[in-house]
């Protein structure tokens, strides 16, 4: 039943804006219910997250940039990408980063049945666990769209949903300064930043903007005295 699958979150998405939920989660009714859903963690820093990987070119470039900055982050992996690039997925974990699940494929859960979503998350979780030997604990749905089916499927797998409070719209492959400016519009102490280490769902080579924006973000965070953390460290559940 479609209406049932949409659940309580669906009314928040009225208007058709797929990306509305994170903003609502950060500022709207969901925030008071569970701030950690938006990735709101301890003060003194931000969690840095990357979606859509692993990617054969983008992920190694992001890993190198993170290493140069001394940062550790959380990567929300797609099962399909993990099967394509298992060595890259393992390199993420070997570098000390945290892995979460983004799904097996990159689909909007609002137009899929609860059964489909359950199978997708189970397949993605199995792929990430088998390849990296780490069972993910965090889940971020594609497009930030959570259906009741997403929530049930995540709970059944022991995954905790986490969205974000600031993004860089780096998938648009704009100038790095524009990525930084977009992040800074919502960047605040205790928030979670969303970027992408893969262009598998966006403009080819968009990860180059992401990589070039990271040192700029470092300057901004230094200026504000904010550290960079993995989600497990940020949300105090690690
Ligand atoms: Zn995504």
Give the helix/strand layout.
Layout: H1 2-6, H2 20-27, H3 29-33, E1 45-51, H4 58-69, E2 74-78, H5 79-84, H6 86-94, E3 98-103, H7 114-132, E4 138-139, H8 148-156, E5 160-161, E6 166-167, H9 176-186, E7 192-196, H10 207-224, E8 227-229, H11 231-234
Parallel strand pairs: 1-2, 1-7, 1-8, 2-3, 4-5, 6-7
Helix pairs in contact: 4-10, 7-8, 9-10
The structure holds zinc ion.
Zinc ion binds next to loops.
Question: What do you see in this structure?
Answer:
The N terminus is likely disordered. Helix 4 links the parallel strand 1 and strand 2. The longest helix has 19 residues. With 238 residues, the chain is of the alpha/beta class. The protein is built from 11 helices and 8 strands. Helix 7 runs parallel beside helix 8 and helix 9 crosses helix 10. Strands 1, 2, 3, 6, 7 and 8 form a 6-stranded parallel beta sheet that branches. A two-stranded parallel sheet has the order 4-5. Helices cover 45% and strands 13% of the residues. The structure holds zinc ion (ZN). Zinc ion binds next to loops. The site of zinc ion has 6 residues, from loops.
* Main β-sheet description: 6 strands, parallel
Distance between the termini: 37 Å
Unreliable segments of 5+ consecutive residues: 1-29
Report the portion of residues in β strands.
Answer: 5-15%
The average pLDDT is 88
Q: Tell me the CATH superfamily.
A: Glycoside hydrolase/deacetylase
The percent of residues in helical segments reads 40-55%
Going by helix content, strand content and strand pairing, the class is: alpha/beta
CATH architecture: Alpha-Beta Barrel
The whole-angstrom Rg is 16 Å
